[in-house]
Amino acid sequence: MSISENVTHYLKQIEGGNCFGEKVTLVAATKTRTAEEINEAIRAGITDIGENKVQEFRDKFDLITGGNRHFIGHLQTNKIKYLIGKTYLIQSLDRDELLTELAARSVRAGVTTDVLIEVNIGSELSKSGYPLREAFAAYERAQNTAGLRVRGFMAMLPLSGDEQLLGGLADEMRALYERAKAQDENIRHLSMGMSGDWQLCLAHGSNMIRLGTALFGAR
To answer: Which CATH number does 3-216 carry?
Structure first.
């Protein structure tokens, strides 16, 4: 199927919302995709796009027509300057060093940067993010730091065929989200679910999914 057909298909799939009936936001993960491909997806109904690499974010920024711009990859502190004031949401606030620098640069630029706290829910050495036990404290630090506004949490589930394990991890993320949401009206997004596991994530409370291959095909 074409990109447009894929977009139409997946937007239809999420029309009913997640297991709580909440509206689901589909973020098109656009790593290595051309501006032409991304624009086709936007014309087909995609409202949010997410880049993994700062250079790609910069290079494509003016070539893409419309769409909320998310940054969803690991962010080095020396590249923050290229994103300030240009992102709808930075989904990968994964460590205190980044928190401090992102806040300082936002304040200097006179902007408030919306972020998600990234959680390493599977405790995987190969992935970044705060351990679950530290994630709420990280949220509180960011929430109380000028220049930042926390909008929720992001996680990537481990690669596993054990749906009971994955469902349990997703439930822990939803519980974290609910805990913050109960005290903070800014909390809106639980970003969890990619091309291989988005259905499971919606069944356990995610309200934002990040699809790349499913929309654009294999790289």
So the answer is: 3.20.20.10
